[in-house]
Design the sequence.
């Protein structure tokens, strides 16, 4: 029962009812109101009529067991999480429908611990409170999740009954459809439970169309991972307003005379970095890294800023990009197009002959990009000896940077990236691995130099820094790696300082390709995941003590925060000349005081984007392979478990399962310590990194799942490629070109 001072007894007035509901600590239903005012008999009947009248007049809302004032929220109610903002869950009333006349109030869920344990779509029973800064809620209990985010394809059985086949490969069972909502067989739909009982099935809430149509695979990932993809009209209007901000050389360093070039993928949707270098006359180089000045257009507290914080980064799919900023900024005004004046943050560097960066300074500049060049074209000009002086200078400066990089000896692991090539209609033309060129390394090393300079420049001013952190492997993972290497008669001494170079030397000493692949997989699994944070812990993979992301503010909010910190630290402020945009382009007071919350949220948003991108590529690969079921492919084992092993097609990717039940009539035992499946009769062993031919048995484009079987069909025990081999000799005679070594990154987007 609600607590509080003793109330006057008798039938309450409208104001007394509203005050009671507003001050109640628990639910305020008809029973609680009657008890509080001491109502009996006929008075309860009059109260019922009063409450109905108040509801009809728009004074209160809710139901008989729990009222709240109109436009308010019940004290205890069910909420549904609709977004994660800086690691904090934001929810609306679960009962609210999109066609309601008034928008729902948004409540911030105050969870215990650091960051949000809730995800978009989760439902919670929560205690609510209205404060001077808006509604907040304390979660009491997590409830079974309504399937608002469940995607599936409608199937009809022989009786005409509808079933929902999930597109998530982790979900294996179809669900009965109680209400098709106008959907037809074969259509991709969003659905939610039709009732509390799972046997009630699901009801279709939205028809998304043909699941195999162009752009459908990325649409599936967007919905599955809860990626914000639509800008509000107000945000788009603000973007148009910001895009009209005048930019001139009056308050900027004029660098339009320099032949600065942007070297990017041929399919790049935006260009946020460009580079220039010239000899300094003493064996070194003066260099410039020009980055789009996004902080000039996107100011703290604006609608653009709030939306960018929520998204965290752009998400790249083969058929589309979900940008962090509206396209008027991301693909136009902020993008460094050739021949057009653009606002830039300029990082001036001095590269010594040995590759060390001896000086740096940051300015706000006006640039005019001389040319946007595709990686392949830039490489061809260099290789064929027809490069212009400004392009040749970049390669010469890079050779100095490369020398310093070699001395640093960062982690060099083979991480091939798949590229899906589509035609104009969105259909798959080809799937191939991106070729790793020196042109990629040139741009990468210039970007790394600028990122290091940004971090050190902010440290010099004792200014806030959003570091890009990659911590060394944990002792637990190193012990596991040591035990694994022992099975190859190789030793990893844990008493020494663990450096990236230690792993590089370990891999360099391995001549056998199959063994090298096995150990490279193990080294990769031992690494920690990079993240953002305000407390420096270095970047292990790059062998750097201080590292921040500065070079991609169009598509990464972390870089925008670094730009704002530089604006503050080095007095680069340029107030917006339009009164309806925030004046400052530096850090907000909130971020200046504490970068932890936004850093955690950006790390989570990055993981979300990576998962969505990977899921989409898997679906494209499965679609590409669906017409080649029955063919035999060279594969490499990527994971071994008790129930079978996973393998990926060499040169193409796409993980598929080989169930242990298909390996033959003999019994296979699983060694959990070394992750090996071994036939008890034949001694045939399946282990991570092993290369073997497999037949493609299934390819499901909707889930991205593949299934393989042995080339022989698994009808009898086999001896793979001759005799069972010792562990360190597995697959040694298998063909299969090794790729060129690459840095621990994702094609320049994440380091």
Sequence:
């Amino acid at each position: 029962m609600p607590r509080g001072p003793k109330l006057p007894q008798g039938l309450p007035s409208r104001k007394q009812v509203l005050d009671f509901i507003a001050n109640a600590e628990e639910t305020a239903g008809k029973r609680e109101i009657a008890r509080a005012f001491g109502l009996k008999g006929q008075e309860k009947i009059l109260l019922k009529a009063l409450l109905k009248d108040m509801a009809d007049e728009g004074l209160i809302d809710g139901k008989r067991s729990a009222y709240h004032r109109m436009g308010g929220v019940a004290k205890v109610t069910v909420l549904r999480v609709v977004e994660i903002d800086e690691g904090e869950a934001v929810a609306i009333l679960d009962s609210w429908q999109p066609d309601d006349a008034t928008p729902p109030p948004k409540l911030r869920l105050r969870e215990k611990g650091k960051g949000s344990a809730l995800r978009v779509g989760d439902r919670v029973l929560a205690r609510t409170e209205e404060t001077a800064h808006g509604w907040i809620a304390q979660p009491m209990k997590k409830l079974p999740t309504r399937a608002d985010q469940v995607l599936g394809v409608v199937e009809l059985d022989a009786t005409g009954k509808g079933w929902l086949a999930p597109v998530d490969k982790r979900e294996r069972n179809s669900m009965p459809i109680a209400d098709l909502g106008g959907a037809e067989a074969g259509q991709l739909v969003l659905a939610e439970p039709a009732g509390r009982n799972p046997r009630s099935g699901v009801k279709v809430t939205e028809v998304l169309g043909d699941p195999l149509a162009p752009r459908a695979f990325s649409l599936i990932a967007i919905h599955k991972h809860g990626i914000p993809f639509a800008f509000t009209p107000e945000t788009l209007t603000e973007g148009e307003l910001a895009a009209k901000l005048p930019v001139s050389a009056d308050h900027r360093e004029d660098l339009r005379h320099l032949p600065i070039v942007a070297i990017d993928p041929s399919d790049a949707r935006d260009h946020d970095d460009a580079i220039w270098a010239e000899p300094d006359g003493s064996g070194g180089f003066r260099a410039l890294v020009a980055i789009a000045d996004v902080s000039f257009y996107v100011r703290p507290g604006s609608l653009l800023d709030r939306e960018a914080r929520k998204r965290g980064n752009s998400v790249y799919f083969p058929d589309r990009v979900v940008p962090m900023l509206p396209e008027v900024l991301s693909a136009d005004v902020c993008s460094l197009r050739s021949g057009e004046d653009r606002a830039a943050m300029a990082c001036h560097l001095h590269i010594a002959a040995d590759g060390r960066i001896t000086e740096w300074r940051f300015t706000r500049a006006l640039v005019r990009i001389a040319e946007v060049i595709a990686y392949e074209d830039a490489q061809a000009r260099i290789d064929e000896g027809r490069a212009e002086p400004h392009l040749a200078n970049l390669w010469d400066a890079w050779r100095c940077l490369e020398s310093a990089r070699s001395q640093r000896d960062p982690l060099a692991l083979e991480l091939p990236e798949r590229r899906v090539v589509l035609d104009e209609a969105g259909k798959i033309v080809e799937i191939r691995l991106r070729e790793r060129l020196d042109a990629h390394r040139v741009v990468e090393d210039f970007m790394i130099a600028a990122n290091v300079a940004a971090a050190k420049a902010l440290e010099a001013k004792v200014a806030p820094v959003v570091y890009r952190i990659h911590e060394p492997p944990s002792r637990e993972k190193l012990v596991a790696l040591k035990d694994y290497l022992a099975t190859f008669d190789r030793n990893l001494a844990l008493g020494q300082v663990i450096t990236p170079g230690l792993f590089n030397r370990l891999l360099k000493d391995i001549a056998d390709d199959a063994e090298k692949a096995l150990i490279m997989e193990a080294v990769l699994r031992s690494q920690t995941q990079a993240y953002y944070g305000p407390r420096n812990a270095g970047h292990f993979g790059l062998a750097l003590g201080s590292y921040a992301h500065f070079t991609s503010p169009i598509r990464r909010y972390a870089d925008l925060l670094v730009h704002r910190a530089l604006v503050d630290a080095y007095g680069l402020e340029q107030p917006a000349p339009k009164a309806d945009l925030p004046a400052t382009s530096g850090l907000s007071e909130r971020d200046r005081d504490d970068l932890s919350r936004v850093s955690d949220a950006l790390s989570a948003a990055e993981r979300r984007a990576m998962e969505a991108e990977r899921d989409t590529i898997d679906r494209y690969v499965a679609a590409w392979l669906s017409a080649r079921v029955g063919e035999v492919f060279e594969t490499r084992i990527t994971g071994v478990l008790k129930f079978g092993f996973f393998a990926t097609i060499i040169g193409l990717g796409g993980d598929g399962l080989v169930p242990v039940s298909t390996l033959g009539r003999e019994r296979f035992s699983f060694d959990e310590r070394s992750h090996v499946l071994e036939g008890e009769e034949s001694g045939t062993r399946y282990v991570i990194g092993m290369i073997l031919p497999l037949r493609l048995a299934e390819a499901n484009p909707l889930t991205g799942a593949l299934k393989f079987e042995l080339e022989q069909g698994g009808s009898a025990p086999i001896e793979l490629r001759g005799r069972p081999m010792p562990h360190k000799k597995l697959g040694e005679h298998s063909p299969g070109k090794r790729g060129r070594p690459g840095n621990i990154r994702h094609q320049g987007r994440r380091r």
Residues 147-211 form a domain with the OB fold (Dihydrolipoamide Acetyltransferase, E2P) fold (CATH 2.40.50.640). The chain has a mean pLDDT of 84. The CA atoms of residues 292 and 334 lie 6 Å apart.
